[in-house]
Specification:
alpha+beta, Aminopeptidase, binds coenzyme A
Length: about 170
């Protein structure tokens, strides 16, 4: 529905379940998330998650990211929305076989356009593990700047990791 050169953002369908289940059962993927425990996810867990991505939402929604071959390559969306302050926290995940091909960068660009031009938000923020170079680069390329750092915020993989806070303001303030 929201389309770029490499990917489009569309709704999740029940046929996406197998791909989603595989994505979230990859340690490298779940370990790169700032929040939560890196637990395996069952088909039932994933089915429930998919059922929550509905148009009957107040904006907390994840798009499916599809490449030009029609493959589901990941997901992204505003995970928490503060309507009063016109602010949202974003999340993105590109599945293992599809990383490093520019999909994440373009998906974030499409997502920012949606948040600013359709949701009328003013500020978007993301928190990211300090070692996650690909994610930081992907956000920087989309105009996110570093606003702060939480030292040793997350214990993951047997060590404490810093979390970088990044944000982007609407380009044309309204
Ligand atoms: C982070 C993520 C969304 C980036 O998406 P992607 O499609 O893999 O990244 P892109 O191909 O758009 O590349 C973005 C930039 O990162 C760089 N990059 C990609 N993979 C990299 C890696 N493994 N190490 C270092 N840099 C990397 C690219 O070179 C590019 O920068 P450049 O244009 O200056 O060369 C994706 O890797 C991902 O989902 N990872 C697992 C989940 C995750 O980390 N989510 C974010 C949590 S905050």
């Amino acid at each position: 529905m929201y389309e770029g050169k490499l990917v489009r953002l569309r709704a999740f369908e029940s046929g996406d379940l197998d791909a989603c289940h595989a994505f979230v059962n990859d340690y490298e993927t779940v370990a790169s998330m700032v929040k939560g425990l890196p637990l395996p996810s069952s088909y039932d867990d994933e089915r429930q998650w998919l059922q929550h991505q509905t148009t009957y939402t107040r904006g907390e929604y994840q798009f499916a990211i599809e490449n030009g071959d029609g493959d589901l390559v990941g997901r992204c969306g505003p995970v928490s929305v503060d309507w009063k302050n016109r602010l949202a926290e974003l999340a993105i995940m590109i599945g293992t076989p599809y990383r490093g091909r520019g999909f994440g960068t373009e998906a974030i660009s499409l997502l920012c356009a949606f948040c600013f031009d359709e949701m009328n938000l003013r500020r978007l923020k993301i928190s990211v593990l300090a070692d996650n170079t690909a994610a930081i680069r992907c956000y920087e390329k989309n105009g996110f700047v570093r606003e702060g750092l939480w030292r040793e915020e997350v214990y993951r993989g047997g060590r404490w990791q810093d979390v970088i806070l990044m944000a982007k303001f609407r380009p044309n303030p309204a």
